[in-house]
Amino acid sequence: MTSFSGFFNTPISGTNLPSVVAQNVDFSGSSTPSAQVTANGQLLIGASSAPYIRVNTLTAGSGIAITNAAGSITIAATGAGFAWSDQSLSFTAAKENGYFTTAALTALLPAAPAEGDTVAFISDTTSVLTIQANGGQAVRLGSTISAVNGTAASTARGDSIELVYRSTGSVWIALSSVGNWSIT
After folding, report:
1. How far is CA 145 from CA 141, 153, 169, in A?
2. Long-range contacts of residues 82-89, Cβ cutoff 8 Å, at least 24 apart
3. Is residue 113 classed as helix, strand or coil in its secondary structure?
4. How far is the C-alpha of 50 from the C-alpha of 143, rounded, in Å?
5. What is the pLDDT of residues 114-130, one digit of tens each?
6. Tens digit of pLDDT for each residue in 74-112?
7. Measured between alpha carbons, how far is 162 from 177 in angstroms, rounded to an integer?
8. Which whole-number Å values give the CA distances from 78 to 57, 66, 124, 172, in the listed order?
9. I need a surface site. Which of 48, 76, 83, 85 has the fewest CB within 10 A?
10. DSSP secondary structure string, 120-170?
11. Which domains are delineated in the chain?
12. CA neighbours closer than 13 Å in the CB half-sphere of residue 36
């Protein structure tokens, strides 16, 4: 029979373990554990100072959702990633969207982006896709940067570019690109 000890004055064996677990024991650093009512989704979490083991829930980070339920915790990514659409006429791009362009057109970048906003373009035509910076912004591909309100233009079918906005400098920076983009 397995015996558990360390947090208790006396060992707990397999015969009385279920009753202790059912009481939601709080190991608060004292030699005598005390019963504590826990909420859905709470776990025992270690700490480097007393109390050394605490009852708490997980904290969701960016892009993560946590749902606590009786006896379970569900962790899921929020958002479904980029929404993609075909474009054959000039348009204003929206953040966190990707576009397949199928004709000669101009895509105006979002007017009020936030740090880290991203847009992506794939030219699926031999016609030119022109990406136009908006409201005092610029576009940077490697060490080449456009003029304020400048452009990046595709040169061949299959050219693609993913742009991430950096508020310092009001610049859309190419995170990745395929092809030879003309920056003006």
Report:
1. 6, 13, 11
2. 82/118, 82/120
3. coil
4. 52
5. 999 999 999 999 999 99
6. 888 876 678 999 999 999 999 999 999 999 999 999 999
7. 6
8. 19, 10, 29, 24
9. 48
10. EEEE-SSSPEEEE--TT-EEEETTEEPPTT-EEE--STT-EEEEEEETTTT
11. 3-77 (no CATH), 83-183 (2.60.120.640)
12. 17
Torsion, Cα of 115, 121, 127, 128 (10° steps): 20
Q: What Cα–Cα distance (Å) separates residue 95 from each residue in 47, 75, 98, 136, 162?
A: 40, 25, 9, 17, 11
**Token representation of residue 96:** 């966190």
Determine the residue type at 43.
Answer: L
Query: What are the tokens at 119?
Result: 């847009």
Classify the C-alpha dihedral 6-9-15-21 as positive or negative.
negative
| Residue 176 CB partners (closer than 8 Å, separation 6+) | 160, 161, 162
**Tens digits of residue pLDDT in 27-67:** 555 555 555 667 888 888 888 888 888 888 888 887 788 89
- The residue type of 175 is L
Q: Which residues contact 167 (CB under 8 A, 6 or more apart)?
A: 113, 114, 115
The angle subtended at Cα 57 by Cα 54 and Cα 59, nearest 5°, is 120
